[in-house]
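Supplementary Note 3. Input sequence used for the single-chain structure prediction.
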Amino acid sequence: MAHIDYYFATLSPFTYLSGTRPAEIAAKHGATITYKPLDIMALFARTGGVPPKDRHPNRQEYRLQELRRRSQLAGLKLNPKPAHWPTNGAPSAYAIIAAQNEGGDVGQLVHNFGAACWAEDRDIAEDTVVRDVLEKSGFSPDLADKGLMSSADTFAKNLEDAVSAGAFGAPFFITDGDQRFWGQDRLDDLDAHLAGNI
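The predicted structure, written as discrete structure tokens, is reproduced below.
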């Protein structure tokens, strides 16, 4: 059975634009998927990336154009300059880690956190928002309080794992055969790889 490590950041608009497709692709091919939320700014710092605010204006303008195009193609509402971005991504990441340990539709939870930030202008660092997104996604809102120390350790480990595995952005998908796919616009390639076509 194939396996996918899915490195992502709840603050990444491109993670949001992935929707629930990573889970759907995994299910289509009978693959397992491990959700690995991480600190994207720390990943940039470790792998030669630059935070969006520090990029050349040409890159910033292109990013905004790309967000508009990709959101239209995905059929997802997106505010390219959300009210609460950047914010602290750790609380939402901890909730996702706890949910994965609990079992349930983690793919939908990841997407709902992205929507809260990028489509609903909500601050996903706030406890009330984290609890609401958990409940909306079919999880107990109390998961926000479970295993915080363990989730913090996993969150830090995910960053180390990402660097060691060759990831440098989000979303980033790595198969058990060490095939790497960066960006939501490479999901078709991941699908084709799992089908044995590339």
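The domain at 3-194 is CATH 3.40.30.10 (Glutaredoxin). The beta strands are 3-8, 32-37, 172-175, 180-182.
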